[in-house]
Structure formats: structure tokens, C-alpha cells
Amino acid sequence: MTAGMQSKAPELSALQMAWLQEIGMDKRMLARYAADAGPFPEAAGRPAARQRDTPPIRGDKPTPAAGAQPAAPGLVRAAAVLAGQQGTAGAPGPAGAAVKKPAADVSAPPAAAPRDWEALQAHIASCEVCGLHAGRSQAVFGTGAVQSPEWMVVGEAPGEHDDRVGLPFQGKPGLLLQAMLASIGVLPESAVFFTNLIKCRPLGNRTPKPEEIAACLPYLQRQIALLKPRRILVLGKLAAQALLGSDADLEQLRGRVHHIRSETGEDIALVATYHPASLLLRPQHKADAWQDLNLARSIAPA
């Protein structure tokens, strides 16, 4: 686990100001930031990641093609809002890259977890290791770019809407998440994979039990090993604690860069922050979440 320096207040472009006002950040807080900034480090000069060229799935049983996942419907609105925007400007990454320390080890998946992407997806769809399978409509495997994505976004558990359509981050939390990511230049065409720690919805959206987390964590570990993401953004205390092997509070885990080691030996940077569902209930944390997003965006190439 690595503790980095706290990020300083970044400068904002007019487009970022609009996005941050959209997600509900106080205008008085935004007023202290300067408006002119250079192009996003990751957006400038880098071709967009290839995504599956099919419309969003609307039925109850999505069936993605082998090796690809459908674009999350919750992220489509950002593309419409930003249509026609060229050369998006944004803020430079915060100063103070984290100094590496020994990485957390998340390399103990059970032998039952398949080592092939499509086989893993089928295995999770029929999983009955814990009791959550009895109340699900379907398992929520994840969606997005599957070839070494720039970002892997990990939430805690599917909600009711996620369970119905089989895709993560649907409904209001998904719309808030897309606005948060767009505010730092991560757009629908960016190379991002979205998933959750828990693959089946806990009925009543209750907190997952320790045995349910233990049953699902190996699947997430295997996804990380197969995807080889450049960075992981973890949303919520449970997912952060599970991946970091820590019982620390989210306030102790956020605001810094950690590193975990995948089961295949990759050292992957990880930043934890608030889940968008939590931010809808506690909007006072949105400014802190945005600072965490900028910290994650500032992570240099390996």
C-alpha cells in the first residue's frame, strides 16, 4: 500500500466547470479555481479505444460478443452533451506522484475461477457459491473495454436497476458517475471497464455479508489479472477494503495512491473514493471525490 501526497486544487476549464456544476458542486467553491488549463494528458494525442459498435442492450438478458462488452447505457448521455466538442481542455494532474511501497497482494483466487475471459463470464452467470444467487435476476459481470483499459472502475454491488438489465452503474448513481468522469476528461469512448466487487444484487440493497464478499472477491481478482488495467478507481468502503486487504475507514484510504499486485504479478495503482450512490445522499463529499478523481488521472504510465 502506498501513501501519496494530497492533491492540490486543480485549475478548471469552462467545460469542467459546467460538468462540476451539473453534479452539484457549490459555485462558490468552484469560483476559486482558475479557468485556463492545458489539454488532458490522456486525451491529447491518444486514439480512442475501440468499443463494441452495437447499440446499448435494453433487454433483461444481455449477451455480449466474445472478447467485448456493450457500452454502458448510463454513459451515453455524456457523449450527447459533449457532441461536437473537439480538443477538450482540462486541468493538469495534481503534483506529488505517490512513492511506491510494497504492493498489497490480491493473488489468491480459487482454482474454480476460469482463466479465460468468456469462460469466467459464463462461470459468474451461473455461480451459486453464496446465497445471493437465489434472489438475483442475473449476475452483473461488468461492461466496457477489455484490452488493457486505462481505467477499471469498481463499485460495491449491483442495484435493483443493474440487476434487471445486467449492467453496472445504472440509474441516478450511473448518471452521476458519468458526470464525475467526464469532468476529468474520461468520456464514453475512453478505455474504461466498469464492474462491482459483488456480482449479484443483495436484496433490499443491504450491505453484503463477509462471506458474500469472500465468495465474489476471487472473481474480481481474476478480472483484474485478465484486464491488466492501468489504474483502478474503487468506489466505496467495502470494495476498497476488499482489494487493499484493509479494515481502515474510507476516509483513511481515500486521498492517496495505493498499489496492489495482481495474481499475474502486475503492480497496479489504485485510488479509492466515495460511491456515487453515497454522494447522492451526502453531496458535501463531492468536492473530495473530485479531488480523488484528479489524483487517479494524474497517475503516470508504468
TrEMBL record:
It comes from the Bacteria. The keyword Transport does not apply. Belongs to the uracil-DNA glycosylase (UDG) superfamily. Type 4 (UDGa) family. GO terms for biological process: DNA repair. Its EC number is 3.2.2.27. Residues 50-61 have a biased composition (Basic and acidic residues). It holds the Pfam family UDG. InterPro entries: UDG_Type-4/5, Ura-DNA_glyco_family4, Uracil-DNA_glycosylase-like, Uracil-DNA_glycosylase-like_sf. It is an enzyme of class 3 (hydrolase). Residues 62-71 have a biased composition (Low complexity). It catalyses: Hydrolyzes single-stranded DNA or mismatched double-stranded DNA and polynucleotides, releasing free uracil. One of its GO terms (molecular function) is metal ion binding. Residues 141-294 form the Uracil-DNA glycosylase-like domain. Transmembrane segments: none annotated. This is Type-4 uracil-DNA glycosylase. NCBIfam families: UDG_fam4. Residues 39-71 are annotated as: Disordered. SMART domains: UDG (SM00986), UreE_C (SM00987).
